[in-house]
Amino acid sequence: MSTQLGKVVSLILLERFGEYVETVGSCLFKKGICPLQHIRVYTQLPASKVKESLCILIKYGLVNYEANHNRTSALYTIQTSKILLMLRYPKYIRFMKTKFGDEAEIILEELLQSGYCTVSDLIIRTYNRMGKDDQTPTPLVDIRDKIEAMITARYLMRIKLPKIEEAVPELVRNVQDMYKMPEVELSQLSKKQSGEPNVIMKDTGIFWQINHDRFHEDMRDKLIESAIENKFDASAAEIIRVMLQQMYIRTEAWADTTNPIPILEVKDIIKKLHPNSDKVAFFDNYINIIEQDSSNIIRKAGEASGGSFQIQMKDIFTQLTWETIQQIVLEKFDSKAARIFCLVKNKSYIEPDQIQKMAMIPAKESKKLTYELLEENFLQVQELKKAPASSGPAKSFILFHIDLSQVVRMVLELCYKSLYNILTRRNHEKIVNKRLIDKKHRVDTIALSMKTQGASEEQLGDIDEMITPPEKEMLTVIEGTMRKLNTIELEIDETIFLLNTYLAYE
User: Fold this and answer.
1) Residues 244, 253: Cα–Cα separation, whole Å
2) Nearest to 119 by CA among 76, 183, 52
3) Which residues are in the RNA polymerase III Rpc82 C -terminal domain (predicted)?
4) What is the pLDDT of residue 394?
5) CATH placement of domain 316-402
6) Helix (H, G, I), strand (E, B) or coil at 213
7) Fold topology of 3-78
8) Which residues, in sequence order, are CB contacts of 155 under 8 Å at separation 6+?
């Protein structure tokens, strides 16, 4: 695994869980599969701290374990991809709020904070949290129904349960009950919420966690829709969105190519959603334009009943990846380097002399840019030898080409490096301005408390004056900097998601 990825993982663990967990996580990242004794020796931590750190990492799904060959002790493996996903939690929460409302947002926040939870505990925590924020909290039954909707949509799933009869418990999951809502009695739930002791819930021991893949399906679909909207318009994006929804009925979510989708079925859905819109009037035109586009987004699968189309998921993400890397080349170098990159891409294999002629760039500058791209691993070289003549040495010539998978992995390294720099800078800003940020939090807390008690505007104004004008200016600069850093972090994560999706389809 890469050094840059290890640095990012270390920073995330340190920020979220503290020093001990970060030390154990870094050990597992560097050493790979490790037993408990090796972790303790390598980290020089007390056994109790190592065990506690492993429990935390296992609870949040950041470490897996398996039995050794004798089945007498456990071997631990860190899940770096799951750790990186912690940066994506704000997106998950935003998806839930958009799709299911404010209650779902709080439900997901509580579940992410606890790692896993029973439905009963999740309902009570959400109810208590909403009660603090609202004078009239949502009834328990509504929260239960919201959780059931999230489970039915497969955003939540049951965790694996251990078989405890062995020295190293094996985690197993009942696939049939994976998305089945457990029975929750509201009367028992009300008693437990009111603090009545010895209340036993029917779902005791049935724990739930988030289903990352389901969120990633939404992120993937949203990415495709945005790309279609940018290339064509909102109507074309709406048609593709309906086709993606119909895809799930017929095809595995992560298939390279979908099963045929009847186009009349898609048209009927568009008619119901937008009866008198241009989407219906020009539906056939939109389908023809999307089909004939060079991006190879959809492909005709048959002629019967108006025809069926298949969505080329792998081709879509290949095209999106090419465009992303071309944009990176443009920003990292210049437009001439991007022209050379596109030329090599279109020709597959090309000689240096041909690049100089076809790119319409002076020979000296063309050679310089080509070898800069080669040095940065955006281009690769293939050497070919000519058959030797009867006398004289064998001659060879080189061809430039692009290995997309290799370039994607290299760009991922750049993303991890950028992510590490962003996280480091944000932590630096917090440390340098800690006194001022803490003061602002204290003043806000006092103001909120006084406002709740019915303080006058004059009293609230006096509290606000506890922060001087220069401090307010400094806080404005700090907030702007943190907002920019957070935005950049989310944009880098989007690039990482796109590139990892391409590699998954590869």
Assistant:
1) 10
2) 183
3) 162-320
4) 56
5) 1.10.10.10
6) helix
7) Arc Repressor Mutant, subunit A (1.10.10)
8) 96, 108, 210, 211, 214, 215
CATH topology classification for 86-210: Arc Repressor Mutant, subunit A (1.10.10)
Token digits of residue 57: 């990492």
- The fold adopted by the segment(s) 214-310 is Arc Repressor Mutant, subunit A (1.10.10)
Please give the full DSSP string across 105-165, using - where no structure is assigned. HHHHHHHHHHSSEEHHHHHHHHHHHHHHH-SSPPPHHHHHHHHHHHHHTTSEEEPPEEETT
DSSP 395: P
pLDDT of res. 305:
44
Which residues of the chain, if any, have pLDDT below 70? 1, 132-137, 163-166, 302-306, 386-394
Element containing residue 185 per DSSP (H, E): none
* Cα–Cα distance for residue pair 31/25, rounded to 1 Å: 10
Give the separation between CA 134 and CA 181, rounded to whole angstroms. 27
- Give the C-alpha separation, 157 to 210, whole Å: 6
Task: In the chain, count H helices and then E strands.
Answer: 23, 13
- Beta-sheet strand order (sheet of 207-210): 117-118, 207-210, 156-158
Q: Find out whether 349 and 401 touch, Cβ atoms under 8 Å.
A: yes
Sequential DSSP letters for 334-391: -HHHHHHHHHHHHHSSB-HHHHHHHTTS-HHHHHHHHHHHHHTTSSEEEEEEPPPPSS
Q: In 297-334, which residue ranges form alpha helices assigned H by DSSP? A: 313-332
